[in-house]
Automatic annotation (TrEMBL):
Alphabetized PROSITE patterns for the sequence: CARRIER (PS50075)
InterPro entries, per the entry: ACP-like_sf, PP-bd_ACP
Residue span(s) of domain Carrier: 1-79
Protein name as catalogued: Carrier domain-containing protein
Species per Swiss-Prot/TrEMBL record: marine metagenome
Length: 81
């Protein structure tokens, strides 16, 4: 899977989870950039990412992520072994 395809799918996931079609994710975006990004929405994001990309993320992997760019890179590694 190409990086841009992951970005497009991730952007759709974020728009759905936060019910905001104006969201445009970027590599350096963090939870601090979206007011509604709380622990419940974090879980919803992870569940949706796992479903859409057909992969499993563990707590250690999730805990190490500093921003959206790192999340995209993790998905790239898991979808292109």
């Amino acid at each position: 899977m190409e990086r841009q395809e992951i970005i497009n799918k991730m952007n759709s996931i974020f728009c759905d989870v936060f019910d905001d079609d104006s969201i445009k994710i970027s590599d350096n975006m963090t939870s601090a950039d979206i007011e509604e990004w709380d622990s419940l929405n974090q879980i919803t994001l992870v569940v949706n990412i796992e479903k859409i990309f057909n992969l499993k993320l563990n707590l250690v992997e999730i805990g190490k992520l500093e921003n959206i760019g790192e999340m995209i890179e993790l998905i790239l590694r898991k979808t292109n072994p």
